[in-house]
Each structure stands twice: as structure tokens, then as C-alpha cells.
Amino acid sequence: MSKAGKQNILGLTTIAGMLVLIAASLLLPLTPSVAQQSSTASSVTPVHAPVQGNGANNVIDGRDHPELIKDKDAYRLFFLAATANQDPAQRQAMFGPLKLTPDQLSQIGFVLNDLRLRHDQMISDYNAGVMAQQGQMGDLKSFLGSRDALVAQARASIENIIGVKTFDLYSIIQIEKRNMVVAVADSQFN
Fold it and tell me: What is the greatest pairwise CA distance in the chain?
């Protein structure tokens, strides 16, 4: 892969990592704090409050611990980063090491665009539900399960398109984990 292609991939995964941090910062305030979840001394019903602590304590940084980033999270970040810019050249740079045909890249583009639309709608629906409940935590576990199923479906479609190059994609994802940052909250719920 050319140096420019590697820089494009690194840039996109950095953007994806930032998007995850932003999404985590939007979702984490909706989760009850650990102190409130485990408190049994009080007879008062726990109030949903923001998680306290340094943001760095709430994430897994792939530069330090890529092995702690689950594959499902890494595929999600990689796929969403590939949709961050609708430029076919950008997608070509990310999938370039697979040496795909233009038809394969076009099919992958369709799958990824569908993933992005459905993913964004899922987030909007979840957030609207939380707002309708006056800020009370929605069913985050269900949301994360649905989101992971959506990504798994896209992954299966892409693996069907690329055939024998599936392991090569897996290898790219493992390398890209070093450029990812994932919210710990994802790991706690699934």
C-alpha cells in the first residue's frame, strides 16, 4: 500500500475513534453511576446520573491495548470510517490492500452506505426514546445488541462480496485496532 493510502486509512480510523468518543460522551451520561448501581445503604430509588470520572478511564485506547478492543467494535469503527467520506477514492484507499475489483468496491459501497443510514437512524431513535422518557436511561443493552447485529449483517455481506479475501480484511481490522479508541461502556453491556 502506498504511504498516502496508509495515511488515509490512519486518518479515517482516527476520525472514527473521535466519533466513538463523541457517541460515548452522549450515551455515558445516560447510564447510572457505579456508586448508584451498587448502593444498598439508602432506601431512596437511585437517580440516573452521569458517570463520574476522567474520560480517559472510560475508554480503551488501541495504541496501548489493541487486544482489548473487540472485533465487533473494530469492524463497526472501520466500516463507519469508510462511510465518513463518500469519495470512492477514499474507500479505495481503505480497502486497497484487498485488491478488489471496481464492481466489488461498488457493492461494498452500497452495503456501507446502508449501514451508515440504518446506524444513524438507530441512534436517533434511541436518543429520541431517552428524551421522551425525560432523560431516563433507555434499554442500552438492547440498543447495543441491535447495533452489533446491524454491523454483523454488513460484515457478512461484505465477506460474501470479497470471498476468499475475508481473512485479509480481518488482518486489516486487527492492524487498525491500534488507531481506535472504544468506550468501555460498550464492553460492559455486551
Answer: 63
